[in-house]
Design brief:
Length: 244
Amino acid sequence: MRNKIDLSPNYSKKTRKHKDIKFVIIHYTGMQSEIESIERLKDPKKKVSSHYLINRKGQVTEMVNELKTAWHAGKSRWKNFTNLNRYSIGIELENKGYEFGYQKFSNIQIKSLIRLCKSIKKKYKIKDEHFLGHSDIAPLRKVDPGEHFPWKKLSKYNLGVWYKEKLQNIKIQKNKKRYNFFKNIYKFGYRYFSLKKKTIKKDKKIIKAFQLRFLPERVTGNLDQKTLKISYYLATSYKILKKP
Protein backbone atom coordinates (compact mmCIF):
# COMPACT_ATOMS: atom_id res chain seq x y z
CA MET A 1 0.00 0.00 0.00
CA ARG A 2 1.33 3.42 -0.98
CA ASN A 3 0.93 6.42 1.25
CA LYS A 4 0.94 9.77 -0.53
CA ILE A 5 1.95 12.74 1.55
CA ASP A 6 2.59 16.30 0.44
CA LEU A 7 5.12 15.83 -2.29
CA SER A 8 8.63 17.02 -1.59
CA PRO A 9 9.38 20.38 -3.23
CA ASN A 10 12.90 19.15 -3.97
CA TYR A 11 12.78 18.09 -7.60
CA SER A 12 13.48 19.44 -11.07
CA LYS A 13 10.33 20.83 -12.61
CA LYS A 14 10.82 19.45 -16.13
CA THR A 15 8.79 16.31 -16.76
CA ARG A 16 10.74 13.30 -18.01
CA LYS A 17 9.69 10.89 -20.71
CA HIS A 18 9.27 7.21 -19.88
CA LYS A 19 12.28 6.34 -22.03
CA ASP A 20 14.52 8.62 -19.93
CA ILE A 21 14.14 6.39 -16.87
CA LYS A 22 16.76 3.65 -17.08
CA PHE A 23 17.86 2.97 -13.49
CA VAL A 24 16.57 2.38 -9.98
CA ILE A 25 18.93 3.56 -7.23
CA ILE A 26 18.51 2.14 -3.73
CA HIS A 27 19.57 4.07 -0.62
CA TYR A 28 19.18 3.91 3.10
CA THR A 29 18.00 7.00 4.99
CA GLY A 30 20.85 7.06 7.52
CA MET A 31 18.71 8.90 10.06
CA GLN A 32 17.30 8.02 13.47
CA SER A 33 13.63 7.77 12.54
CA GLU A 34 11.18 7.65 9.65
CA ILE A 35 9.67 11.01 10.67
CA GLU A 36 13.08 12.67 10.68
CA SER A 37 13.86 11.14 7.27
CA ILE A 38 10.62 12.38 5.71
CA GLU A 39 11.11 15.87 7.14
CA ARG A 40 14.59 16.01 5.65
CA LEU A 41 13.37 14.83 2.24
CA LYS A 42 10.68 17.56 2.33
CA ASP A 43 12.91 20.38 3.60
CA PRO A 44 13.62 22.85 0.75
CA LYS A 45 16.79 23.95 2.54
CA LYS A 46 18.29 20.44 2.37
CA LYS A 47 17.81 20.11 -1.40
CA VAL A 48 17.56 16.32 -1.23
CA SER A 49 14.66 14.02 -2.06
CA SER A 50 13.72 10.60 -3.37
CA HIS A 51 10.75 9.24 -5.25
CA TYR A 52 9.86 6.77 -2.53
CA LEU A 53 10.59 5.95 1.09
CA ILE A 54 9.86 2.49 2.54
CA ASN A 55 9.70 2.26 6.31
CA ARG A 56 10.56 -0.79 8.43
CA LYS A 57 6.90 -1.87 8.48
CA GLY A 58 6.89 -1.99 4.67
CA GLN A 59 4.76 1.11 4.14
CA VAL A 60 5.63 2.92 0.93
CA THR A 61 5.52 6.72 0.94
CA GLU A 62 5.63 8.55 -2.38
CA MET A 63 7.72 11.71 -2.09
CA VAL A 64 8.19 12.78 -5.73
CA ASN A 65 6.30 11.85 -8.88
CA GLU A 66 8.22 9.27 -10.92
CA LEU A 67 8.31 11.49 -14.00
CA LYS A 68 10.04 14.29 -12.10
CA THR A 69 13.77 14.25 -11.34
CA ALA A 70 14.32 13.77 -7.61
CA TRP A 71 17.63 14.77 -5.99
CA HIS A 72 18.90 11.53 -4.48
CA ALA A 73 22.03 10.47 -6.35
CA GLY A 74 24.20 13.59 -6.17
CA LYS A 75 27.45 13.53 -8.08
CA SER A 76 27.36 10.11 -9.69
CA ARG A 77 28.49 8.03 -12.64
CA TRP A 78 27.65 4.64 -14.09
CA LYS A 79 28.70 3.38 -17.49
CA ASN A 80 28.44 6.34 -19.88
CA PHE A 81 25.94 8.20 -17.69
CA THR A 82 26.69 11.09 -15.37
CA ASN A 83 24.30 12.70 -12.90
CA LEU A 84 22.13 9.61 -12.41
CA ASN A 85 19.30 11.74 -11.01
CA ARG A 86 18.16 12.47 -14.53
CA TYR A 87 17.86 8.81 -15.51
CA SER A 88 16.71 7.11 -12.34
CA ILE A 89 14.07 6.52 -9.70
CA GLY A 90 15.43 6.79 -6.15
CA ILE A 91 14.14 4.62 -3.31
CA GLU A 92 15.07 5.27 0.32
CA LEU A 93 14.82 2.47 2.90
CA GLU A 94 14.39 3.46 6.51
CA ASN A 95 17.60 2.43 8.29
CA LYS A 96 19.72 4.25 10.85
CA GLY A 97 22.84 3.60 8.80
CA TYR A 98 26.43 3.39 9.97
CA GLU A 99 26.31 6.66 11.85
CA PHE A 100 23.42 5.79 14.16
CA GLY A 101 23.52 1.97 14.28
CA TYR A 102 23.27 0.10 10.99
CA GLN A 103 20.36 -2.37 10.98
CA LYS A 104 19.36 -5.40 8.98
CA PHE A 105 16.47 -4.56 6.71
CA SER A 106 13.15 -6.06 7.82
CA ASN A 107 11.56 -8.83 5.76
CA ILE A 108 8.38 -6.87 5.18
CA GLN A 109 10.43 -3.84 4.09
CA ILE A 110 12.23 -5.91 1.46
CA LYS A 111 8.97 -7.51 0.30
CA SER A 112 7.52 -4.04 -0.27
CA LEU A 113 10.66 -2.99 -2.11
CA ILE A 114 10.46 -6.01 -4.40
CA ARG A 115 6.82 -5.29 -5.26
CA LEU A 116 7.60 -1.65 -5.99
CA CYS A 117 10.67 -2.47 -8.09
CA LYS A 118 8.81 -5.08 -10.12
CA SER A 119 6.16 -2.49 -10.93
CA ILE A 120 8.77 0.13 -11.90
CA LYS A 121 10.72 -2.37 -13.97
CA LYS A 122 7.67 -3.36 -15.98
CA LYS A 123 6.53 0.23 -16.49
CA TYR A 124 9.88 1.56 -17.73
CA LYS A 125 11.43 -1.65 -19.12
CA ILE A 126 14.46 -1.34 -16.87
CA LYS A 127 17.25 -3.85 -17.39
CA ASP A 128 18.09 -6.35 -14.63
CA GLU A 129 21.57 -4.89 -14.17
CA HIS A 130 20.26 -1.34 -13.79
CA PHE A 131 19.05 -1.81 -10.24
CA LEU A 132 21.93 -0.28 -8.29
CA GLY A 133 22.98 0.96 -4.87
CA HIS A 134 24.12 4.48 -4.05
CA SER A 135 27.59 3.09 -3.34
CA ASP A 136 27.76 1.67 -6.89
CA ILE A 137 27.27 5.03 -8.55
CA ALA A 138 29.17 7.16 -5.99
CA PRO A 139 31.77 4.77 -4.49
CA LEU A 140 34.10 7.48 -3.20
CA ARG A 141 31.32 9.17 -1.17
CA LYS A 142 28.67 6.63 -0.28
CA VAL A 143 28.33 3.21 1.37
CA ASP A 144 24.55 2.71 1.29
CA PRO A 145 22.55 0.53 1.22
CA GLY A 146 25.42 -1.42 2.83
CA GLU A 147 26.34 -5.07 3.35
CA HIS A 148 22.99 -6.05 4.92
CA PHE A 149 21.09 -5.24 1.74
CA PRO A 150 20.00 -8.56 0.09
CA TRP A 151 21.14 -8.10 -3.49
CA LYS A 152 21.29 -11.86 -4.00
CA LYS A 153 17.61 -12.19 -3.03
CA LEU A 154 16.56 -9.34 -5.33
CA SER A 155 18.46 -10.90 -8.23
CA LYS A 156 16.12 -13.91 -8.00
CA TYR A 157 13.36 -11.52 -9.07
CA ASN A 158 15.58 -10.06 -11.84
CA LEU A 159 16.04 -6.87 -9.85
CA GLY A 160 19.79 -6.38 -9.94
CA VAL A 161 22.28 -9.10 -10.79
CA TRP A 162 24.36 -11.68 -8.98
CA TYR A 163 27.08 -14.11 -9.98
CA LYS A 164 27.23 -17.88 -10.27
CA GLU A 165 28.20 -19.38 -6.94
CA LYS A 166 30.71 -21.74 -8.55
CA LEU A 167 33.60 -19.55 -9.62
CA GLN A 168 36.34 -22.20 -9.66
CA ASN A 169 36.24 -22.57 -13.46
CA ILE A 170 37.11 -18.91 -13.95
CA LYS A 171 40.80 -18.57 -14.70
CA ILE A 172 42.51 -15.36 -13.65
CA GLN A 173 45.87 -13.96 -14.64
CA LYS A 174 48.37 -13.91 -11.82
CA ASN A 175 49.96 -10.67 -12.95
CA LYS A 176 48.26 -7.31 -13.41
CA LYS A 177 45.61 -8.13 -10.80
CA ARG A 178 44.72 -4.51 -10.18
CA TYR A 179 44.57 -3.62 -13.87
CA ASN A 180 42.39 -6.63 -14.69
CA PHE A 181 40.01 -6.05 -11.80
CA PHE A 182 39.41 -2.41 -12.66
CA LYS A 183 39.12 -3.22 -16.36
CA ASN A 184 36.43 -5.78 -15.50
CA ILE A 185 34.40 -3.51 -13.26
CA TYR A 186 34.72 -0.69 -15.81
CA LYS A 187 33.08 -2.97 -18.36
CA PHE A 188 30.32 -3.71 -15.88
CA GLY A 189 29.71 -0.02 -15.13
CA TYR A 190 31.82 1.28 -12.23
CA ARG A 191 33.69 4.57 -12.65
CA TYR A 192 35.83 7.05 -10.61
CA PHE A 193 39.20 5.38 -11.15
CA SER A 194 42.03 5.25 -13.66
CA LEU A 195 43.29 2.07 -15.26
CA LYS A 196 46.70 3.66 -15.72
CA LYS A 197 47.26 5.66 -12.56
CA LYS A 198 47.16 3.77 -9.26
CA THR A 199 45.66 5.67 -6.35
CA ILE A 200 45.67 3.58 -3.17
CA LYS A 201 42.98 5.50 -1.26
CA LYS A 202 40.54 5.59 -4.17
CA ASP A 203 41.27 1.97 -5.09
CA LYS A 204 40.39 0.74 -1.63
CA LYS A 205 37.10 2.66 -1.53
CA ILE A 206 36.03 1.32 -4.92
CA ILE A 207 37.00 -2.27 -4.06
CA LYS A 208 34.98 -1.89 -0.83
CA ALA A 209 31.98 -0.59 -2.78
CA PHE A 210 32.21 -3.61 -5.07
CA GLN A 211 32.45 -5.96 -2.07
CA LEU A 212 29.53 -4.26 -0.30
CA ARG A 213 27.48 -5.28 -3.32
CA PHE A 214 28.87 -8.68 -4.28
CA LEU A 215 30.89 -9.98 -1.32
CA PRO A 216 29.12 -8.56 1.76
CA GLU A 217 30.68 -11.07 4.15
CA ARG A 218 34.18 -9.85 3.23
CA VAL A 219 34.28 -6.06 2.90
CA THR A 220 38.00 -5.47 3.32
CA GLY A 221 39.00 -3.28 0.41
CA ASN A 222 41.64 -5.88 -0.43
CA LEU A 223 41.73 -7.42 -3.88
CA ASP A 224 41.51 -11.14 -3.14
CA GLN A 225 40.91 -13.96 -5.62
CA LYS A 226 37.16 -14.26 -5.11
CA THR A 227 36.65 -10.52 -5.62
CA LEU A 228 38.67 -10.73 -8.84
CA LYS A 229 36.76 -13.78 -10.08
CA ILE A 230 33.41 -12.13 -9.46
CA SER A 231 34.60 -9.14 -11.50
CA TYR A 232 35.50 -11.45 -14.40
CA TYR A 233 32.07 -13.06 -14.28
CA LEU A 234 30.25 -9.72 -14.34
CA ALA A 235 32.43 -8.25 -17.07
CA THR A 236 31.68 -11.13 -19.42
CA SER A 237 27.98 -11.40 -18.59
CA TYR A 238 26.65 -7.86 -19.06
CA LYS A 239 27.09 -5.39 -21.89
CA ILE A 240 27.58 -1.64 -21.62
CA LEU A 241 24.49 0.41 -22.38
CA LYS A 242 25.43 3.39 -24.47
CA LYS A 243 24.04 6.76 -23.55
CA PRO A 244 21.38 7.85 -26.08
